[in-house]
């Protein structure tokens, strides 16, 4: 099969890779219907993480082509969506709704789903099948559910977005934009997107943002306070993962408010005194996307939400290197790779 390999920072190609096989009786094999490049794939691309000839990709939707002997809930031919973390969905941690930290978790990044086929561990726990194969135009939205939508949804949930709440979203990448959509679906009264890019501001408004703040740092905090009667927001979504974005989030939150942080943390160190006097709730981490999948798939099937709009560049898998370049250069918000 063909699949993406990142040889070293900035160097991506599509190569022949071994066809995946059933390794454990709980595995399934899927033929990808579409896959995509994640903002988190840019960390190794930019040299922030070590990378050496690594298969890439952790987002996926597709058709089951083979199942192991113990697989019960999906069958050959099913269209399935799964999270970037494979989970058994039965352990105590999964049962509590934190499947991304399952005691048997398998990161799908190690599998590498920017490929024609992929092995899905813990198929029964990980995969959710749609009742029937979806209309072609819904496939990008289902793919979004695999990570960015589920992650934005968790962030909004962790930030306790809801009716009567003012929600601030720090980060205008795909996850931040999905956080806007989630907050809107949860009934937030006001949604303030922090963004400096006109195209992303426009998409944020389309997804439900009521206000845009282009400033950052002290000026960004001041702008949020100005919009919230001097108090700060009830709910803040952090979708970047840097020291600056994390402190932007904490400082934009009112005392007693909630920060949902889902940007993959890179060098974040919270100053104890600022955290102490902020009196905010912090809840985040790798999103337990599996918890939300049944609900999200239903909303997509009903065409209540259209998260697939977040893919603003669609190119063939074979041109993945161009997709990485476009995302790195911020020419694309999120790249869908067609198969
Ligand atoms: Zn588990």
UniProtKB/TrEMBL annotation:
A molecular-function term among this protein's GO annotations: zinc ion binding
Cofactor list: Zn(2+)
Pfam families reported for this sequence: ADH_N, ADH_zinc_N
Positions of the Enoyl reductase (ER) domain: 7-337
Positions of the UniProt region annotated as Disordered: 1-20
Keywords assigned by UniProt, alphabetized: Metal-binding, Oxidoreductase, Zinc
SUPFAM superfamilies: GroES-like, NAD(P)-binding Rossmann-fold domains
SMART domains associated with the record: PKS_ER
Family: Belongs to the zinc-containing alcohol dehydrogenase family.
Stored PANTHER family: DEHYDROGENASE, ZINC-CONTAINING, PUTATIVE (AFU_ORTHOLOGUE AFUA_2G02810)-RELATED, ZINC-TYPE ALCOHOL DEHYDROGENASE-LIKE
Protein name, as recorded: IMP dehydrogenase
Natural source organism: Gordonia phthalatica
């Amino acid at each position: 099969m063909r699949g993406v390999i990142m040889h070293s920072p900035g160097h991506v190609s599509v190569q022949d890779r071994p066809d995946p096989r059933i390794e454990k009786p709980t595995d399934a094999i899927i033929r990808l219907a579409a896959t995509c490049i994640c903002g988190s794939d840019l960390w190794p691309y930019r040299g922030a993480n070590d990378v050496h000839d690594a298969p890439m990709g952790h987002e996926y939707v597709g058709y089951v082509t083979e199942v192991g002997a113990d697989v019960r809930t999906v069958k050959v031919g099913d269209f399935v969506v799964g999270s970037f973390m494979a989970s058994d969905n039965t352990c105590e941690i999964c049962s509590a709704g934190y499947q991304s930290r399952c005691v048997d978790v398998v990161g799908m990044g190690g599998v590498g789903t920017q490929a024609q086929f992929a092995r899905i561990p813990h198929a029964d726990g990980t995969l959710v099948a749609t009742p029937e194969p979806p209309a072609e135009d819904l496939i990008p939205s289902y793919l979004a559910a695999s990570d960015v939508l589920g992650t934005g949804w968790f962030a909004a949930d962790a930030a306790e977005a809801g009716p009567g709440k003012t929600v601030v979203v720090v980060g205008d990448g795909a996850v931040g934009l999905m956080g806007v959509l989630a907050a809107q679906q949860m009934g937030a009264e006001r949604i303030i997107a922090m963004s400096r890019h006109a195209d992303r501001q426009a998409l944020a408004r389309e997804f439900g943002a009521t206000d845009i703040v282009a400033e950052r740092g002290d000026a960004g905090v001041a702008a949020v306070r100005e919009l919230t009667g001097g108090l700060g927001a009830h709910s803040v979504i952090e979708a970047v993962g840097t020291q600056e974005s994390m402190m932007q989030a904490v400082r934009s939150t009112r005392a007693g408010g909630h920060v949902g942080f889902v940007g993959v943390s890179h060098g974040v160190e919270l100053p104890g005194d600022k955290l102490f006097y902020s009196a905010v709730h912090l809840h985040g981490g790798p999103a337990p996307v599996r918890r939300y999948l049944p609900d999200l798939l239903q909303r997509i099937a009903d065409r209540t939400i259209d998260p697939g709009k977040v893919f603003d560049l669609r190119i063939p898998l074979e041109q993945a290197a161009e997709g990485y370049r476009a995302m790195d250069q911020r020419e694309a918000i999120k790249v869908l790779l067609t198969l």
